[in-house]
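Model it.
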Amino acid sequence: VSFNYRNKFNEEGHLLTADVQYSQDREDQEAVIEERITFPTDDLLALENVKQQEDQSEWLIQADYVRPMEDAQFEAGFRSNLEETITDYRLDSLDQASGEFVVNKALTNIFTYNENVHAAYTQYGNKLGKFSFLTGLRLEYTQLKGDVETEYDLEDLEELLGPDVDLNFDKRYLGLFPTVNLIYELSENENVSLGYSRRINRPRGWFINPFPSRSSRTNIFQGNPDLDPAFSNAFDLGYLKRWRTLTLPSSVYYQRETGSFERVQEPTGITTPDGIEIIRTIPINLSTNQRYGAEAGILYNPTRWLRINSSFNFFRFVTEGEFNDVDYGAENNSCFARFSSKVTLPS
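Modeled.
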């Protein structure tokens, strides 16, 4: 459900907009985990039914104001995202003695996760001869809140989840995010640009939920309520050249992210009834990521009915981080290309 308000003032480009949106969705998942010994005899070790229902509702409230001025423009606004996700997770295990499924109370739970982000932002741009600039600043206040309902004894959960895990948490933090874009016109059809921005990468609810979910009796994934957002600084240097029918954009870029999320594996100290050690995968703020590369494109309009668009991107990704004497560092090179054409038919 969406409500939109738009006010165009008398002056060209003078605008006020406001939006209120509400959305809701549900996702149901079912899985069967069956573990057997197939040689020398065929014996059933464990049979489990997993049912997960996720209900999500979200409010978006936003207002933007644009004020044009001579050779300049001022913008300001605010935005609130209020998101609630309720995950109902149930695990039933087969009791082979009775032949009936029994609820595993240690892993069955309802996790309610709220992510509320409020932002106020402003932007100002101007042109001075061949030089133009656009600067922006965004102030964000974020609340991450989690609440767990379970029938299991909370003291017994320390053995399963760890003694330092906070099942009911309320984390709040404030962030400031500047943006700067500078453009210098070498000629009417040629310019160079320089851009900078600070960005945030928030953990999603699945990475926060402290209750384990599992793909087998011996492999579980457990979220981390102490997970903090990752922050990055991004730089971009661009060059653009235009001809009558041809445009060539290009850029080189660099991005460095600290506190990046990495999934690490560790023993839980718990074993299955038949003595197999249970391994936990958990996300932590572990690494520093660096990404740098170059991109070039072609936009070609040889005639009114044909438009060709192509681009090529190459970048190198470097991760550095260590946990429990295990080096999680990695390096890789990637490239991708894209080509598309548009033909306008007669009439």
